[in-house]
Write a structure and sequence with these properties.
The structure is a single chain. The chain is an alpha+beta fold. Helix content is 47%, strand content 11%. It has 16 helices and nine strands. Strands 1, 2, 3, 4, 5, 6 and 7 form a seven-stranded mixed sheet that branches. Strands 8-9 form a two-stranded antiparallel sheet. It starts with a helix and ends with a helix.
């Protein structure tokens, strides 16, 4: 028995509540089980009980063993002076100065066996064999809550970034886009790039895609060489002038990673895409419109030079390099939807929050190793909305064995 399981059992009344008696033999009836307290103090507030003919109103404290009352020092804590009932799994002592109710023998053994089996299971999806006990309504409601939890957490990070950037939404969008254009391999140097190159400098040159590339590739540290081809030589010359004008600093080139990357994911190509994105689409006004998000991602390709190159001075076969569907999904899931949600919270406007959810519903599902855990279950996975729910399930419930807080685990244990 764990105390969190005892809380779950009490909160959901999953024990025999008829003909209860205190450890001293007095008849007791639970009139109100109280409200779970997630902060310090007694476990349940605003409860009421009747012992014999006396009605008591106050708080309830739960422990696995009755002796935990003394071990936790509650007898000296003023917060526990209004405790009207001590609920325990095992009553190992009889000197607690308040009425005590022992639940040992009142809890269905099938519930205890289910919980023990789930906790002992070493698989990630520990309830896989019990999922037939959940209905579609439960699953769909739980997935919606998971998506909201995930968006709230991501939007909290965005709102913190918003404050650090002096309430500048444009700068927040710029930094987030840079982070995810770098993907997990080159995230760090891309983030450094957006810190070293102020987006306000880029705004001054949005009408000149050549200068945008010069700024990005220069600050990225890729123009500190002697080139053979005319285009990179011109980029370098342009960057030297801009560097002097804005007193720019550069990312150390050795920070960029190339190994085990497909050529289409090379940082040079990502920077070329980033340059086109910044040059063609002002940030916030496009991100707040779902239709524009889809349209602008469909239009992102590279400038002419990069259709024949993956690296400077190394010509390759002509390839028309547009952003792939997988990368579009990454940007929609990690940048656009969270920004919409955060902006909706900041402006207290549900339209943007609904738009964030709609964007996920209209975005292709993600494919990664974590999704394989759910391959054998028959849950609907038609969009990024569903895969985001499963990622939240995986990362914050299954891995941490939070079955008592999980809507699916909750349903299985209550069944």
């Amino acid at each position: 028995m764990q105390e969190k399981l005892l809380h779950f059992i009490w909160q959901n009344k999953l024990f025999n509540t008829k003909k209860l008696k205190t450890t001293e033999g007095s008849d007791i009836q639970i009139l109100n089980f109280g409200k779970l307290n997630k902060d310090g103090g007694p476990d349940f507030f605003q409860a009421s009980i009747q012992i014999e003919n006396i009605i008591l109103v106050g708080n309830i404290e739960l422990h696995v063993y009755a002796s935990d009352w003394w071990k936790h020092g509650h007898q000296q804590d003023k917060k526990y002076q209004n405790v009207i009932l001590h609920v325990v799994f095992i009553n190992d002592i009889n000197d607690i100065p308040i009425p005590t109710l022992e639940l040992n023998g009142l809890i269905p053994t099938v519930l205890l066996h289910k919980y023990q089996s789930m906790m002992n299971n070493q698989e990630v999806l520990i309830c896989k064999k019990l999922l037939q006990e959940t209905d579609n309504f439960t699953v769909e409601n739980w997935q919606e809550r998971l998506v909201i939890e995930r968006l709230e957490r991501k939007s909290n990070e965005i709102l913190s970034l918003f404050k650090r950037n002096n309430n500048d939404w444009e700068k927040v969008c710029y930094q987030l886009l840079g982070k995810y254009f770098g993907s997990h391999i080159n995230q760090h140097p891309f983030e450094l790039l957006t810190q070293l190159l102020d987006y306000k400098i880029l705004l001054k040159h949005l009408d000149n895609e050549f200068q945008i590339e010069a700024l990005l590739f220069g600050v990225a540290g890729f123009l500190n060489k002697d080139f053979v081809e005319i285009y990179p030589r011109n980029l370098k010359q342009e960057y030297i002038c801009l560097k002097h004008k804005y007193n720019l600093k550069e990312v150390d080139e050795h920070l960029w990673q190339w190994l085990r990357l497909r050529p289409i994911s090379f940082p040079t190509i990502r920077l070329a895409w980033f340059a086109v994105f910044l040059q063609q689409f002002p940030f916030l006004q496009n991100i707040l419109d779902n239709n524009k998000i889809h349209q602008m991602l469909d239009k992102i390709d590279v400038t002419t030079y990069w259709n024949h190159h993956y690296l400077f001075d190394k010509q390759s076969k002509f390839t028309y390099k547009k952003i792939g569907n997988e990368f579009k999904t990454i940007l929609k899931v990690n940048v656009f939807a969270p920004v919409l949600f955060a902006y909706g919270r900041y402006t207290d406007n549900m339209v943007f929050i609904d738009n964030a959810i709609d964007l996920l519903l209209n975005t292709a599902p993600e494919h990664n190793s974590k999704m394989k855990v759910f391959d054998e279950i028959n849950w609907k996975i038609n969009s990024a909305f569903h895969t985001q729910a499963l990622l939240e399930q995986h990362d914050n419930y299954c891995i941490k064995k939070r079955c008592l807080e999980c809507g699916i685990g909750h349903r299985i244990l209550r069944k």
